[in-house]
Queue: 2 jobs
Job 1
Amino acid sequence: MDVTNTFGVTITRIFFIITLNFNIVNLNAQSYTGVMFDTQEYTRVQISSDTIEVYSEIVTECARRCALLDDCCVASYSEDTSTCVLDHSGSCCIDTFIEIGWRTIKKQTANASPTCTNCLVLDRSQYKIIDDEKTWQEAVDECKCQGGKLIEIETKKENDFILTELESRNTGALGYWLGGYNFNNDFDLEWISNPGQDMPFDGTGVGEPNNPFTELCLAAWEDIDFNWADISCGAMCPYICEFSAD
Ligand SMILES: [Ca+2]
Ligand SMILES: [Ca+2]
Ligand SMILES: [Ca+2]
């Protein structure tokens, strides 16, 4: 009897999953109000000060609401409760977590050039300073998701430009993550894009880097006038994304 029941439940689950997978295909890259959305089943966005919950009869209504909001890129919808959670942080790089009964829809940006609003411009690069504090790896991921990279400073000109900006901001931040990491188990740091190469320009402060085994990540550190220092990668810091026109 138990075996039969278990078998029955298993069969039901299999059909449930097949049905949802079919929906993914149907919903993928669907247009709502002229805006294309991708769908990810079984996930939802975290409730935060950047989210609002509204009632929506169907997922299309939830997508339409997001499509009409300039600062909404990601929304989650629950068919069970007709709840639509709209994220209005302006970011398309929102952490989601797995939850049955929910799906997350995201405005398509894959083929669009990276949008960089309120960014600093120097030569062929744009820079976005983000005050939201993250670990070094989280900062790497966020910049990548936004279509750029954690900043890599190749010249004195670029370094002076960024330093001047950081000094003038005076936000009290301990430092800002840069895209340097100690690859190759040695005593210096390399840019993520070129882990096998010495940095073409060295902006490290006096006495830095000083902890090649415990401080593997690079930051522009306030204490030493935003010169560079090796820092423990788990520290929480604001960071700078670089978007290159090349
Ligand atoms: Ca650069
Ligand atoms: Ca190294
Ligand atoms: Ca250090």
Note: The mean pLDDT is 86.
Job 2
Amino acid sequence: MAESMDPLTLYQAASEYLEIAAMESQKQANVDIGLMQTNISLAHDLICQIHSVETDPLIIGALNQLSTVLLYQQETLLIKIRQLDRQAGSSSSNDSMELIGVQKNDQGDMQKKARRQAIEETIALKGQFCFNDVAGLEEAKQALREAIIMPVQFPQLFTGGRKPWQRILLYGPPGTGKSRLAQAVSSEIRSNFYSVSSSDLISSWVGESEKLIKELFQHATSQEGRSVVFIDEIDSVCRKRSSHEEEHTRRVKTELLKQMEGADSSGSSDRIFLLCATNCPWELDPAFLRRFQKRIYIPLPDVEARHALMRLHCQGNDVQLSDEDWLLLAQKTEGFSGSDLATLVNAALFEPVRDLQGTDSWIQTPDGLFIPCHGDNPLSITANINELPPERVQVRGVCVQDFLKSLVSNRKTVMQEELIRFAQFTNSFGQHG
Ligand SMILES: Nc1ncnc2c1ncn2[C@@H]1O[C@H](COP(=O)(O)OP(=O)(O)OP(=O)(O)O)[C@@H](O)[C@H]1O
Ligand SMILES: [Mg+2]
């Protein structure tokens, strides 16, 4: 019946169920906890139906969140019902035991639903970044094109002995664009891209983690074409084994290894591509390290990439720098990572805004905007910023001095010792990106 309803009617019905549950929860006595649970469950079913017909990604995101909250509320209520049931008659009837049995199944189903939803949420929305938004890293881009994009685009080329790469590890100092590069891959392919952060795997789904990994790989294998699974910050799950290793980390690791092996042996290897990123590859368990066919070093940007990166971060702002200025800045930022440069540029872009407070000379543009200027300008107007109409206040363009000022307080964050360590690792295990 509900299938034929339009989304608005479904929204209304869902909110009525939630209202009943909310009213019940506000009662001081005789709370019908079963009624609350049933209404939340009904509302959740409707939310799932709306989800299946909704196309707006923002609304889908909100529905996903709402659905997760409702699942957890249901779970909490079921636990509470079980507790009350136990208190009411621990010695007692088969009825209550049956009820508990039913609830256990319900709970299992709900967890399964929650896991499925969590997996679906890892499927990256396309279009946030593309390869052009990643400066430099040409070799890494080339390797990823060959490994992921080409096999999806031209499956007919990868037959017989010519098999596409299955697993690539990106490693390098913090802030060099590893995560951004992976996000860019997701925009370049049409197949599913699962983007998982390993800290999510551990903290959000304790006890459920290994099931989640298993189902994630199953979900990925069941899709048409070749899916990409990206696990960011893989070091937090795949550290070298140690005696004080946490139990759940160990289980996640074992499951992940099993899935990697399963993919090798079951012939599903060409259905999943695994991409991982880390900034401490030496911490990884050798069993994992060995399974990556390519380990690509994502280094600090060179002079050209620094130039490109700074320009990229200035996009959309009025920046008045000559080619010589850019070159000077690119030279002065030796050793900066991509994110150090992003911070530097941000600070420089902010300088004109900071200037506004101390300015009392303004020039008015033909379209009525006020821009700060030198007091000796014959056309200048003297005023405090608070005396001007706020919507008419504009900043001056950003100049090289703003960058030089920003360079004084924003320094590089990657230390030389760390770079030496990366160079040693690359010599033994890696490949330059
Ligand atoms: N090559 C690049 N091209 C464009 N932006 C970059 C690049 N490298 C770094 N950045 C900038 O730095 C920020 C951090 O990049 P990102 O998160 O991809 O780094 P990371 O290598 O994954 O770092 P971590 O190892 O700490 O996770 C990005 O949001 C982006 O602004
Ligand atoms: Mg990252």
Note: The pocket of magnesium ion (ligand 2) is lined by residues 178-179, 232, 277 (CB under 6 Å).
